[in-house]
Amino acid sequence: MNLELEIKLSTDFPAIYLSGEGLEGHGHNATHFHFECGDGWFALLYEFSSKIQKMIDEKKITKFAAQQVKEKYAELRYYASYEFKECEREGKEEEEAAIDKEFRSYLTIAEEASGKTCETCGLPGVLRTDSGWYSTACDVHWKPRATK
Question: What is this structure's pTM?
Answer without folding.
Answer: 0.86
